[in-house]
Design goal:
- By secondary structure, the protein is an alpha/beta fold.
- It is built from eight helices and seven strands, in the order βαββαβαβαβααβαα.
- A seven-stranded parallel β-sheet has the order 3-2-1-4-5-6-7, with helices on both faces.
- α2 packs parallel to α3.
- The model has no long low-confidence stretch (mean pLDDT 92).
């Protein structure tokens, strides 16, 4: 298997990550999926178990992955959330969220680059969030973690292209039709309005293949990002009404 035909996906056992892994596997890639949960016997990819909230486990993972690379696709997708009033969420929940959403992908990115595990001409995708473009009352820590990841990805894009010949993209999907999103949504939220993860994965992979720096999958996400740039105050106020004011519980 050539380096260009190997792929790595974090958070691969379910949701958007599973969609990435399955679509890359269907495209002929030998996929290594990272997740703390097993994906099931029907998964068309190899699974490495790792709790990305554990810094020691992530350090060990970098070494394990170096022997499996170089990778033509790396999709740093894993993410968790914490919703509810900011002051109601315990410190340990913040620490875990930041470790999974921000620290782990940064450490993996730097470690794989240092180990020579990025295939020249490959694609490196950081999955941020549509919250990158707005305030996110009710999920402030999640928004902060994904915003930091987007800034990091933008910062390494030019150096990685020059040093490794790797194209770096930031993907900012909106709400998805996943169990994770449903768990953190306000009571009565309409899941049918969320994008299916298969569609989001397809749009993101297509955008990254074209070398796009910023990918907002779907017309709705693209319009939301534009409006958020033009009118950040009103959009954040609308987010408060739509999400924060309707939250009836804290979930972390």
């Amino acid at each position: 298997m050539s380096a260009a035909r190997r792929a790595l996906v974090t958070g691969a056992s379910a949701g958007l990550g599973r969609a990435f892994a399955e679509q890359l596997a269907a495209g002929g890639y030998a996929v290594t999926g990272i997740d703390r949960d097993a994906p099931g016997a029907d998964a068309p990819f190899d699974h490495l178990r790792c709790d990305l909230a554990d810094p020691g486990a992530v350090d060990t993972l970098v070494g394990d992955l170096a022997g499996r690379g170089p990778f033509g696709w790396i999709v740093l997708n894993a993410g968790i959330s914490a919703t509810g009033p900011f002051e109601a969420i315990p410190p340990e929940a913040y620490a875990r969220l930041l470790a999974v959403n921000t620290e782990a992908p940064m450490v993996l990115c730097a470690g794989l680059a240092a180990a020579g595990a990025l295939a020249p001409g490959g694609r490196l995708v950081f999955v941020s969030s549509l919250s990158h473009f707005t305030g996110y009352p009710g999920a402030a820590s999640y928004g902060a973690s994904k915003d930091a990841l987007a800034v990091y990805a933008k910062s390494v894009r030019a150096p990685f292209k020059k040093a490794y010949g790797v194209s770096v993209s930031v993907a900012c999907p909106g709400p998805l039709r996943t169990d994770h999103a449903a768990r953190h949504a306000p009571e009565g939220a309409d899941a049918a309005k969320r994008m299916p993860p298969d569609e989001a994965a397809r749009r993101i992979l297509a955008g990254a293949q074209k070398g796009r720096a910023m990918i907002t999958p779907g017309a709705g996400a693209t319009i939301f990002a534009l409006i958020s740039r033009l009118a950040p105050g009103p959009v954040t106020s609308a987010m408060k009404r739509i999400i924060y004011d309707k939250l009836d519980r804290s979930v972390f």
